[in-house]
Amino acid sequence: MAGEGLISVYSHLYGIQAWIFRFGNVVGARMGHGVIYDFIRKLKANPRELEILGDGKQEKNYFLVEDCFEGMLFACRHAKEKPCDVFNLGTETTVTVEEIAHIVVEEMGLGGVRFSFTGGSVAGPGTSPRSSTT
Fold first, then answer.
1. What is the DSSP string of 81-114?
2. Could you say which of 3.40.50.880, 3.40.47.10, 3.90.25.10, 2.102.10.10 is the CATH number of the domain covering 22-82+91-117?
3. What are the φ and ψ backbone dihedral angles of 36, each rounded to 5 degrees?
4. Is the dihedral of CA 20, 26, 30, 33 positive or negative?
5. Beta carbons of 60 and 97 less than 8 angstroms apart
6. Are 27 and 68 in contact (CB under 8 A)?
7. b/e for 47-86, b at 16 or more Cβ within 10 A?
8. Neighbours of 39 (CB within 10 A)
9. With b meaning 16 or more CB within 10 Å and e meaning fewer, what string describes 90-129?
10. Is the dihedral of CA 6, 8, 14, 17 positive or negative?
11. pLDDT tens column, 8-67
12. Distances (CA, A) of 31 to 24, 26, 48, 134
């Protein structure tokens, strides 16, 4: 929020146009972090059990990097002539972390994977039980 405030003030003071983008969880072929990457890494190490941080009921908003890029281009092309504008990019739907785990297991062609949960409504410090752009 502080960064957004700084950008807004700077654009107003110096007469430049600025766009601020808030993203849902962007996924793509070159992911190097996040819950999907973490699940794949864990299942490669142990295809019989998957540890899920939290209770698995955390909700995430996912969309493809290609859609993110298109959304940014669309916003820039159609933005009103304001000094600063904010855009939330993502989807209107969410999926639970446990549903993500089932999808990853299925896509990896694994069967009989036991899920273990660490408990709690959040996966760790700085995480939220619900991530949405709506």
1. S-SEEEEEES-S--EEHHHHHHHHHHHTT--SPE
2. 3.90.25.10
3. -65, -45
4. positive
5. yes
6. no
7. eeebebbbbbebebbbbeeebbeebeeeeeeeeeeebbbe
8. 21
9. bbeebbebbebbeebbeeeeeeebeeebeeeeebeeeeee
10. positive
11. 999 999 999 999 999 988 988 888 888 999 999 999 999 999 999 999 999 988 899 999
12. 14, 9, 23, 24
For tokens 């807004």, the residue is: 8
In this prediction the pTM is 0.71
Distance separating alpha carbons of residues 12 and 19, to the nearest angstrom: 12
Tokens of 111: 């069967």
* Domain residue limits, the chain: 22-82+91-117
Q: What number of residues does the chain have?
A: 134
